[in-house]
């Protein structure tokens, strides 16, 4: 890495913070710039120091990690939030994505996952641990997404682009999307490139997370 990534650790357990800090100090190009024990402390630190990445616990006293992530992403969109939690269920994952989290790790993640996640989100590329990625696959792979007609974000995309986004979220390949829309594969690839440029993402995971986070498509109820 050519730049130094400054990380804030936000967790209400001091022992866990110390453990993360000792691990991160061994990563090249990454430094721990501060710690926070509550969501409010995390928001205050970001306002003062503006770190590049925040490792955010979800359940904390007072303001929780979901609300803290929402405030941070609204006020400082260049600061990326990674949820680090023992809760990896559908509700917490989706709530953190809606709040603007660019990554999600379980507290049992490996050192490599932690390193990869920090490097990834610092480049605006979403990162999710294997078990969280499986949840997203289950949500998108076998569901019909509903266009959020009231969402202002939908206005950034044409009707065809929204349809392509929907099919990408359903894990369709470029060939399958082309067949569904009766278009050529190269045309679909062109749509995909424009979609990624508008979203500011680089891959399928980025498209899916953006669509869910910005509520372009709504997950139907269970």
TrEMBL record:
Chain ranges of the Response regulatory domain: 6-122
Residue(s) carrying 4-aspartylphosphate: 57
SMART domains xref list: HTH_LUXR, REC
Classification via Pfam families: GerE, Response_reg
Domain of life of the organism encoding this protein: Bacteria
The name this protein goes by in its record: Response regulator transcription factor
Keywords: DNA-binding, Phosphoprotein, Transcription, Transcription regulation
Residue span, HTH luxR-type domain: 150-215
């Amino acid at each position: 890495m050519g730049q130094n990534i400054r990380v804030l650790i936000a967790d209400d357990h001091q022992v866990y913070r110390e453990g993360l800090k000792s691990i991160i100090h061994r990563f090249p190009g990454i430094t721990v710039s501060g710690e926070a024990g509550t969501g409010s402390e995390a928001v205050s630190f970001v306002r003062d120091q503006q770190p590049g990445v925040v490792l955010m616990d979800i359940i904390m006293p007072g303001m929780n990690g979901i609300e803290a992530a929402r405030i941070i992403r609204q006020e400082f969109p260049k600061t990326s939030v990674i949820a680090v939690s023992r809760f990896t269920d559908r509700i917490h994952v989706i709530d953190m994505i809606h709040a603007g989290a660019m990554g999600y790790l379980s507290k049992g993640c490996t050192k490599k996952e932690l390193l990869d996640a920090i490097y990834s989100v610092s480049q605006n590329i979403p990162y999710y641990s294997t078990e969280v990625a499986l949840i997203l696959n289950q949500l998108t792979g076998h569901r019909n997404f509903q266009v959020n007609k009231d969402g202002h974000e939908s206005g950034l995309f044409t009707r065809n682009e929204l349809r392509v986004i929907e099919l990408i979220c359903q894990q369709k390949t470029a060939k399958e999307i082309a067949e569904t829309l009766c278009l050529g594969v190269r045309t679909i690839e062109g749509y995909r490139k424009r979609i990624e440029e508008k979203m500011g993402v680089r891959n399928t995971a980025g498209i899916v997370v953006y669509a869910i986070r910005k509520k372009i498509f709504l997950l139907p109820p269970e």
